[in-house]
Design a protein that fits this description.
The complex is a heterodimer.
Chain A (H helix, E strand, L loop, with lengths): L1 H5 L10 H15 L2 E4 L10 H5 L10 E4 L7 E5 L2 E2 H13 L5 E5 L2 H4 L9 E2 L10 E3 L6 H17 L4 H7 L1 H12 L9 H7 L10 H9 L20
Parallel strand pairs in A: 1-2, 3-5, 5-7
Antiparallel strand pairs in A: 4-6
Helix pairs in contact in A: 2-6
Chain B lengths: L1 H12 L6 E6 L2 E5 L5 H12 L3 E10 L4 E10 L4 E10 L4 E3 L8 H12 L2 E3 L24 H8 L7 H9 L8 H4 L7
Parallel strand pairs in B: 2-5, 6-7
Antiparallel strand pairs in B: 1-2, 3-4, 4-5
Classes of the chains: A alpha/beta, B alpha/beta.
The structure holds iron/sulfur cluster.
Chain lengths: ~240, ~190
C-alpha cells in the first residue's frame, strides 16, 4: 500500500472543453488585431512606410502602427541597436502590456550585421529580451516583412508565440546581460518581479544572483519633477 | 573674377610665417601651418578675406608619427571657396587651443573631437560628454583602441545561421546566392 502511494498520479486536467474553444477564439482575435509600436531603430525602418501604406498595405492583415507602448502588441526592432538605444528599447519593452511580441528585423539584430565590430552596438538582441521572430536581411524588403508578420500571426493563432512569458520566467538571465552592459546599478521603472508574481509566471530563473544585485542597488522611484525647460529665469523685480 | 580673388588670397596667406599653401583648384586651398600660427591664420581669413563659416573641424590620428592632425575647414560665401587649414599637434598630452572666440560653432566640433579622440581644447565652453553619454571606455576613435578586442570582452556573438535561410528557400522565399554568382570576377565565362 505504502509503495503504491508513492506512484505519482498525474491528475489530468479535465477542463471545460468550451474553455479551450474560448482560448482559441481569443488567440484568433488577438492575431488579427495587432498594433505595432511606432519605435524604430537603425536603417531597416525605411522599409516600413511602404509596408504600411498602400503599396503593400499591412492594414489588410489587421496590423497598424500605434504610438504608445502601453497600447501596442508588437515591438519591431528595425535594425542595429546601439547600446544607448538598447536601454530605451528595454524600458519600452517593459512598459508594454502583455502579451507582447518582439520582432527583430534586419541582420543587425541577429548578430550585429555589418556593425559586428562596432563598440557601440549590441550584437544579440535575444540576450536582452525574448525575440519571437527574426526577419533577416540587410534590409528585408516589405514582402519579407509582411510574410514575417504573417508567420507571427500564425504563431499567435497556434499559441506558440509566448516568448513574453520567458522574460518573466527567466528574468535573471536577461537582467544579468543587461547589467553586464549597463553596469550593476541598472534599474528600470518597471518592477518585473512583482509583475511576474501577478501573472503567476514566476519560474526557476526569475530570481537569482542578478536580481539580488538589483535589490541591493534599487532606489525607490520618485515622481518626475514638473518643470518647464531649464532656462526659465526668475522674473527680475 | 575668381582668378583675381584666388591670387589675392594667395598673397594674403604669404603674410604668415612657416605656411605652406597648396592650391587644389580655384575654389579649394590646402594650407599647412604650425600649430601656434593657426589662430592668427583663422583671424586673418575671417577678418580680411570673408571666410566666416567654419564648416567642420576634423581630426586624424597619426599614431605612427605620435601626432594628431586637426583640419579646420572654413568657407567664404563671397568667393565661394574653401580653405582647409591643417595643423599637427603632439599626441601627448593632446592639448590645443579652442577657436571658440573666433568661430562659435567650434564648440560643437571641439566637444565631439574631445569625446572621440580625447583631445582637450583649452577655452572651449563645454568639454563634457556629447553623444557617447553612456560610454566610459577610452575615446573610441583613437587608433590604439581595439574595437574588436572590446566587443570580444563585452558582447557575445552568434553565427548567422544559414539553416534558417535554407528553410526559407524550401518554402520558395529567400535567395541563397553563391559567391561566384555575386562576384563578377568569379563568373564562369
Ligand atoms: S541589417 Fe543592414 S539595413 Fe538593417 S540595420 Fe543593419 S545595416 Fe541597416
Amino acid at each position: 500500500m505504502s509503495r503504491l502511494q508513492k506512484i505519482p498520479v498525474v491528475e489530468e486536467k479535465k477542463g471545460n472543453p468550451l474553455a479551450r474553444v474560448f482560448d482559441d477564439l481569443v488567440r484568433f482575435c488577438r492575431s488579427r488585431s495587432l498594433f505595432i509600436l511606432h519605435y524604430c531603430t537603425g536603417c531597416g525602418a525605411i522599409e516600413l512606410p511602404p509596408a504600411m501604406t498602400s503599396r503593400f498595405d499591412m492594414e489588410r492583415l489587421g496590423i497598424q502602427p500605434m504610438v504608445s507602448p502601453r497600447q501596442a502588441d508588437i515591438l519591431l526592432i528595425t535594425g542595429y541597436v546601439s547600446i544607448k538605444t538598447l536601454k530605451r528599447v528595454i524600458l519600452t519593452y517593459e512598459q508594454m502590456g502583455s502579451p507582447k511580441y518582439v520582432v527583430g528585423i534586419c541582420s543587425c539584430t541577429v548578430n550585429g550585421g555589418m556593425y559586428w565590430q562596432s563598440y557601440a552596438t549590441a550584437k544579440k538582441l535575444d540576450e536582452y529580451m525574448p525575440v519571437d521572430l527574426y526577419i533577416a536581411g540587410c534590409m528585408p524588403r516589405p514582402e519579407a516583412v509582411i510574410s514575417g508578420l504573417q508567420k507571427l500571426m500564425d504563431r499567435i493563432n497556434s499559441g506558440e508565440a509566448d516568448s513574453w512569458q520567458d522574460y518573466y520566467r527567466n528574468y535573471d538571465y536577461y537582467l544579468g546581460n543587461q547589467q553586464k552592459l549597463f553596469g550593476e546599478d541598472w534599474q528600470t521603472p518597471t518592477d518585473i518581479i512583482t509583475e511576474a508574481k501577478h501573472y503567476e509566471l514566476m519560474g526557476e530563473g526569475t530570481l537569482g544572483q542578478h536580481t539580488r544585485l538589483l535589490e541591493q542597488h534599487q532606489k525607490p522611484l520618485e515622481a518626475l519633477e514638473m518643470r518647464l525647460g531649464h532656462n526659465i529665469k526668475e522674473p527680475v523685480e | 573674377m575668381s582668378q583675381q580673388v584666388a591670387h589675392w588670397l594667395d598673397n594674403l596667406l604669404k603674410e604668415i610665417e612657416g605656411i605652406e599653401v597648396r592650391r587644389k583648384s580655384s575654389r579649394r586651398v590646402r594650407v599647412d601651418v604650425p600649430a601656434d600660427a593657426l589662430p592668427a591664420l583663422l583671424e586673418l581669413l575671417q577678418g580680411r578675406a570673408g571666410y566666416i563659416h567654419l564648416s567642420a573641424i576634423s581630426c586624424v590620428d597619426w599614431i605612427d608619427d605620435d601626432e594628431f592632425e586637426l583640419v579646420y575647414h572654413v568657407w567664404s560665401y563671397e568667393s565661394h571657396s574653401l580653405v582647409s587649414a591643417h595643423i599637427r599637434i603632439a599626441r601627448e598630452p593632446g592639448v590645443y587651443l579652442s577657436v571658440y572666440d573666433l568661430y562659435q560653432p567650434a564648440a560643437f566640433f571641439e566637444r565631439d573631437i574631445h569625446e572621440m579622440y580625447g583631445i582637450h581644447f583649452e577655452g572651449s565652453p563645454n568639454m563634457e560628454k556629447f553623444i557617447l553619454t553612456e560610454w566610459d571606455g577610452p575615446p573610441p576613435m583613437r587608433k590604439e583602441f581595439d574595437s574588436e578586442a572590446y566587443i570580444n570582452e563585452h558582447l557575445s556573438w552568434q553565427e548567422y545561421n544559414p539553416e534558417w535561410l535554407q528553410e526559407l528557400v524550401a518554402e520558395g522565399g529567400g535567395v541563397i546566392i553563391p559567391p561566384e554568382e555575386q562576384r563578377f570576377s568569379q563568373k564562369k565565362k
